[in-house]
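help with this.
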Amino acid sequence: MVARLLIALVCFVGLPASAAAQEREVPYWATIRASELNMRVGPSADYKIDWVYRRPGLPVKVVRVMEGWRLIEDPAGDKGWVVARLLSPDHGAIVIGDGPADMRASPAADAALKWRVEPGVVTALGDCEDSWCEVTIANRRGWIAQDRLWGAGTP
């Protein structure tokens, strides 16, 4: 009897944290955690798969939360439902715009040019300041103008 009460207490104590995770304010940024992620037309495995992502680290905007599912918007503007556990709270970005984006040594247009980054490259996202964001691509670190990054700024 004591064991059952102890198990019930442990389960009850775990509920608030789980519920709080479900109540995160939307919209918010996330990244794809899985090497393969199915986007569905509705919030259940019973719904048709609309798209399959094969790009871990790709940033997405979470626009709605429903139990263990998230309605996301991808960089192309497509929306669909994915399993929440296959998303990561890590911040990421994808280079957008025409032509390569300049990666600078510091957050300024006149800072030393380190690399040129093609649109479509996915980055890990650090802090943003003065309209510049610190990014990491493989082992390369630098700063890219925030307006060239989808996933940076307010969702």
Observations:
- The chain has two domains: 24-90, 93-150.
- The domain at 24-90 is CATH 2.30.30.40 (SH3 type barrels.).
